[in-house]
Write a structure and sequence with these properties.
Helix content: 25-40%
Order of helices and strands: EHEEHEEEEEEEHHEEHHE
Structural class: alpha+beta
Number of helices: 6
Strand content: 35-45%
Low-confidence stretches: none
Largest sheet: 9 strands, mixed
Shape: globular
Distance between the termini: 42 Å
Mean pLDDT: 89
Strand order of the largest sheet: 3-2-4-5-8-1-12-11-13
Length: about 210
């Protein structure tokens, strides 16, 4: 178990408006990070391109009428590379759906969220008489400045968001769903009036 100490990720799921997301991008820009699509080509994107991509992602879920959304929600996946510490380090942004029940089965659609994650440990390779192995050492000791950036981003998100709570219809009445996703007041209002809340008769409880 000692080898697994510091494994896993720091995680935060959120959903905010494009304008609120722009403030996060401004923070990234101040820190001179790079935004890269984690594909074979390692395609680099500028901050305006990422803002436009997030706006499309957001609109796909918050459109009032279903015909105004994209046929399939766009993927939103980026690596955030930092040179704050020695060598490249960073964390990840990616979209994750929120499943919810609908009259005895899972709904065909999902609610949106963005996951920001940062590894808790750095793999250190070792070797002894039994062979090669690795342990995870605390990332805060190896990449303190990048961890500080992640912590700053997470705090900025928490300042403008609350935990997402919404209710789904059941034969016995409305049943509240409690999630770990954080949503801003403006985004909650947009979701309240969205095609997906209308289609499934969902009720937004987050104020």
């Amino acid at each position: 178990m000692e080898r697994l100490k510091n494994s896993g990720f720091y995680k935060l799921k959120f959903f905010i408006t494009p304008e609120e997301f722009k403030s996060l991008l401004a923070l990234f820009e101040q820190k001179q990070v790079q935004l890269i699509r984690p594909n074979h080509a390692q395609t680099m994107y500028d901050f305006d391109q990422v803002y436009q991509a997030y706006s499309r992602f957001y609109q796909s879920y918050t459109a009032r009428e279903e015909e105004n959304r994209e046929e399939s929600p766009p993927h939103f996946v980026y690596s955030i590379l930092s040179m704050l510490d020695q060598g490249k380090s960073g964390f990840f942004l990616k979209n994750e759906g929120i499943s919810f029940p609908y009259f005895g089965q899972w709904a065909e659609d999902e609610l949106p969220s963005i996951l920001v994650s940062f590894p808790k440990g750095l793999a250190i390779h070792k070797e002894d008489e039994k062979g090669k192995y690795y342990i995870y050492e605390d990332i805060r000791e190896h990449q303190p400045l990048t961890y500080g950036l992640y912590h700053e981003v997470a705090n900025e998100i928490k300042k403008i968001t609350k935990l997402l709570r919404f209710s789904v219809p059941t034969p016995e009445g409305l049943h509240e769903q409690k999630t770990s996703v954080r949503i801003s007041k403006e985004a909650a209002e947009d979701m309240r009036r969205s095609w997906i809340f209308n289609t499934y008769s969902l009720v937004m409880n987050t104020k």
